[in-house]
Amino acid sequence: MFDNNLFERRLAKVEVALRRKFRQSEGDLEDLMRHAGRRLPRAAHEAAQGLVQTRLQAGHPKLAPQIDAGRVDRQFRTVEAAIAAHDPAEARKRRWIGAGASLAFNLLLFFGLVMGFALWRGWI
């Protein structure tokens, strides 16, 4: 059985968790997920879209009884697990490591080309 009050409370908790994790001050679930972008998996985005549709459906008196409470619960668990799994410090660290690796590769490539050019011109 679908309980609209429980749904709204869980939705508010998810929105608060998204605001804290991604440092966004305002917006509904759709805006918060758009702000999260690729930092959350596709399954979480699909589940959040389902929750947005459920919110619209719950507001309609004839469509509200058709809501599948099990599906809504699975969607909530998917979104909550994705939010909990995201570690901003780890993402920052990975971004810095990736930039450093890219810089190191480009420097090696540049010095290799300079050495190849010097050998070709007979300077070495």
Structural class: mainly alpha
Q: How many strand segments?
A: 0
The mean pLDDT is: 94
Helical fraction: over 70%
Work out the count of structural domains: 2
Largest sheet features:
none
Order of helices and strands: HHHHH
Radius of gyration, in Å, reads 24 Å
The portion of residues forming beta strands comes to under 5%
Quaternary structure classification: single chain
Low-confidence stretches: none
Please sum up the structure shown:
By secondary structure, the protein is mostly helical.
Give a verbal description of the structure:
This protein is mainly α. The chain folds into two domains: 1-86, no CATH class; 88-124. The protein is 77% helix and 0% strand. The chain contains five helices and no strands. The longest helix has 34 residues, at 88-121. The chain is rod-shaped, with a radius of gyration of 24 Å. The model has no long low-confidence stretch (mean pLDDT 94).
